[in-house]
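Incident log, structure service

09:12 report received: a user says their structure output differs between two submissions of the same chain.
09:20 pulled the input from the user's history:
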Amino acid sequence: MFLVVDTATPAGSVALCRGTTLLGEIALNVGKNHTDRLLIIIQQLLTDAGLSVRQLDAFGVVLGPGSFTGLRVGVATVKGLALATGRPVVGVSSLAALATQVPFSAFPVCALLDARKSEVYAGLFGWENDRLQALGKEAVLPPARLLDSMDQDLVFVGDGALVYRDLIVAHLGSRAHFVPWPLHMSRASSAAVLVLDGLRQGQAISLESLSPVYIRLSEAEIMWASREG
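09:34 re-ran on a clean worker, output below:
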C-alpha cells in the first residue's frame, strides 16, 4: 500500500494504491494553496479508505520540475510522513509522470509544463518494451527554441502544451498531436506508475537527499548569484 503526492502544478493531487490497484485519488485544480489543503486531502483519502498513515508501506512524491512553492510543500509533507512512519520514499519526475498519460504512443511524447517567464519545462520520452524511456535531459527554455530543434511527429501533453498550442502548431503543423484536454492535467495516479516501478527496483531515496528538482534557479538564487558575480 502506498500514497503518492503531486504538488508540482496548481492541479494538486494525492493517490492511494494497493499494488497496481488505484484505491482512490483526490485531484483539485481550483487555485487553492497546497499548504492549506494537502494534509486535509491526505487525511480524507485515508479516512475514506478506512486506513491510517501507519498502515502504508511506502510513499511517492513528484520532485519536479514545477512550482517552487508547490514542490517544497509536497516534498516536506512526504518527508514528514516518512520520518513519522519509517517508510521508504520514491521520488519521480513531473514530466515523466505526464508522459505516462500517453501510453505506448507511436510517436515520441513531449511533456511540457508552463514555467512562466515565457518558458516551459520540457522532457522528451518514448516507449520501449512497454517501459517509458527518457530520450534526453529535461530542460527549461523558451518554447520556440525547443520547437526549432524538432522536425518529427510528436505527441504533446501538459499545461505548457495548452498555453503554447498555437506556437506548436505553427512550427510543426500536422506533425503536432495533442492528448484530450483532461490528460493535460498532472495526476498523482500517473506518477504512481513510476513510483511502483521504483519501489520494485529498490530506488527509494534517503530522506537526507530527498529534495525538490527545480531545474531553474529560484528568484532568491538568481539575486544571490548576481551579487556574487
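09:41 both user submissions now match this output. Likely a transient worker issue. Closing.
09:42 reviewer note: The chain has two domains: 2-94+186-228, 96-184. The longest helix spans residues 68-85.
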